Every structure is written in C-alpha cells, then in structure tokens.
Amino acid sequence: MIPFNKPAVAGKELEYIHEAVSRGQLAGDGFFTDKCQSWLAEKLGAPAVLLTHSCTAALEMSAILIGIDRGDEVIMPSFTFVSTANAVVLRGGIPVFVDIRPDTLNIDENLVESAITDRTKAIFPVHYAGIPAQMERILDIAQRNGLYVVEDAAQALGSKYKGRNAGTLAALAAFSFHETKNLISGEGGALAINDPDLIARSEIVREKGTNRKVFFRGEVDKYTWVDIGSSFLPGELVAAYLWGQLEEAKSIQNERMTVWNRYEIAFREFNARGLRTPIIPDDCEHNAHMYYILLPSKKARDQFIALMKYDGITTPFHYVPLHSAPAGRRFGRTSGELSVTDYWSERLVRLPMYAFMGDAPSRVIERARLHLSRLL
After folding, report:
1. In which domain, by residue range, is 170 found?
2. Is residue 236 located within the same domain as residue 320?
3. N or C: which terminus of the chain has fewer CB atoms within 10 Å of its end residue's CB?
C-alpha cells in the first residue's frame, strides 16, 4: 500500500519530546516554542513569528487583528480549504469568492478589483500547492483601495515570489504544520507578523486576550484581560516535534523536490494527450508541496483514482469549491462566474508526496503511466 501521505520522523523529534517533558513545561511558549519561532522568523525574514495550534488558528487570529466585523467582506478564492472562509465567518464577515487562474489555480488577480465593494475589508490570497499567487498586483489593488492582505501560506513554507519568501509579502501570513505539509507537527501552525504595528496585539490575542506575554518579560507586574482573544498556543510537545523537523528542513525539502521532479519528468509527455501537469510561473519558486495532474474530464479523473486504488495507491482529489458547499452558499457570496474553479476542481488528482518515500515513487509512476496511457 502506498498512502497519499505518511508522517515521518526525520531526526530528533522523539528525543525532543522527552526533553520537553523533562524540562517540566508542557504548556505553550516554552523552550521549544521559542526555538521554532526564532528559526522561522530568521528563515522567513519576518519581524515576528508566533506558533499556533493550527493554520486555522493563525487565520482566525489574522481576522481579529485586522478588525473583521459583522458585514465586512473578504475576497478569496473558492478553491481553498474551509479555514480560509471560516476565519472570516466567525467574525461576522462575508467571504466573497472569485475565480482562479487556469494555470496556477491561484486566485485570479485580474478579477479581484471588480469584486471590491464599499464593504470590502481585506483580500486573502492562497498560495495553492506552494506556488505563490501574483502578489504584486494583489498588493497594488489593496493599497489603492485601503485593504488588508493576509497570505494563506499554509502550503507555501519555503516558496518564493520574485525572490521574496512567501509569507512575508503582506501584513500577516498563516502557515501550517499539519501532517500533510512539508514540515510537520501533527497539527500546528504559525502566524508571521510582517507589520510591526500588529506584533504587540498579536501576542495579546494569542494569549486569550491577556497581556500575559509582557508580564513574563517583566514589563508589567501583573497580567490581566485587555482585549478579545482565544487560546491559540500549541503545547510544548507539538513544538518539540516541530523543532526536530525544522532541524532537518533542508534534507526533507531536498527529498520532496527529488520526488516532484521525478513525477514531472514522468508525466509531462502526457500533456500532448490531454493531461495537464503543474505550471510554475517564471517569477515563482515552489516548495514541492504537492504534485497534481489534471485530467480531461471528471469521468477520467474518477476512473484514474479507482484504478490506482485497486493497485493500492491513494491518489485523492482536492477541495470541493467553497461556493458550492452548503455553508458557502449560506455565509458567502460569489463575484462573477467561477467556471475555472468548477472545471479544474472536477479534474484534479494529487499523487502521493511525503518525506523519505523510498521506492514508492517508482511504483506510483509505473502504475499511473499505465492507466493514463489507457485513459487518454
């Protein structure tokens, strides 16, 4: 059996979990949390990074920090995970879904401006498959219209746009360390705060609305409730596991890139027969988060998945577009036609991708090429 994803111990994760227990602090913001946050801030070049218990939490913090309130609209792609929209809905806001580009499957920056109304508060671009959205145009639109931008960089740690790290291009950015991501902690996430004016409040929001962080730094003699917030911290065991992953980030990334390139070489010839492999714009550097193929029809997609499953290989499709989901119709609205979203979401298949796959890619390639030769 070859699963779609298989979490791996890459280094000293288990030793660090034992060490965290021995240090006597399992609650958040301990030794390993500090190490992870410092590493991420340095690697990204961000003024501050705070670990969270999930990327969902980082997105929810972002919605609080930029002041999403009842009736505020936030522009985002429909082709994304539900957390992108939930972060807005939980504050009383309205997700406004726009279509995606046919090449990268990221939000179509050319459709963003037409979705703006007098109630628009922010834009939440998603860097799908670790390929950054066209941030230059999005940031220009936001600046001219007085809007916040929050990067949903859940899949994009290590990716770059025009030489700059994804997650450092807007005021805030949310990352994920879910077990399906490049670097993992089971569940886990981080918020990169690139606007220095938001750092102090982000610490408060993350600590249940208290100024506990400044109390522990000795800046006040007691801490109290000063703002809205929630418990967005991960425990130290999560941070300890993540630190083991961060130490091995280079080797994990190299492994994933090797697999991604093997897939690309193996399947690019099928582009001439109706398949579509990923398109990487010249101004983007991806992180090998995901390798997907786009089949010419939903029927062909479903047949391919079934054939691979019969071979013991898991190749799932991805998001059901949010605008077509019951909650999406209830809480959000669409701007224009979402025909590209509807078209590609029915044709996309993800191939197995995880660290230290061994001989698994050879088997995936062998069976996938056989089935594609018959389907196309």
Report:
1. 13-247
2. no
3. N
Give the whole-number percent of the chain exceeding pLDDT 90: 96
> Of 222, 247, 272, which marks where a domain is finished?
247
User: By three-state DSSP, how is residue 233 classified?
Assistant: coil
Q: Which helix (H) or strand (E) holds 316?
A: none
| Beta pairing, strands 284-285 & 73-77 | unpaired
Question: Are residues 238 and 259 located together in one domain of the fold?
Answer: no
Residue of 129, 175, 173, 121 lying closest to 151 (CA atoms): 173
Assign residue 70 a region: left if phi > 0, alpha if psi is -120 to 50, beta otherwise?
beta
Q: Taking CA 19 as the corner, what is the angle to CA 15 and CA 25, rounded to the nearest 5 degrees?
A: 145
pLDDT at 121 > cutoff 80: yes
Q: Is the dihedral of CA 170, 151, 35, 213 positive or negative?
A: positive
The answer to whether 376 and 305 have CB atoms below 8 angstroms apart is no
Q: Which helix (H) or strand (E) holds 61?
A: helix 55-65
Q: Alpha-carbon distance 254 to 240, whole Å?
A: 22
Domain boundary among 201, 222, 247: 247
CA max distance for the chain: 72
Band of the pLDDT at 219, cuts 50, 70, 90? Answer: confident
The dihedral through the CA atoms of 350, 101, 120, 153 has a sign that is: positive
Mean pLDDT of the chain: 97
First to last CA, the chain: 25
- pLDDT for 330 beyond 90: yes
Q: Which residues pair with 152 in a beta bridge?
A: 126, 174
- Count the neighbouring beta carbons within 10 Å of the beta carbon of residue 118: 5
pTM value? Answer: 0.96
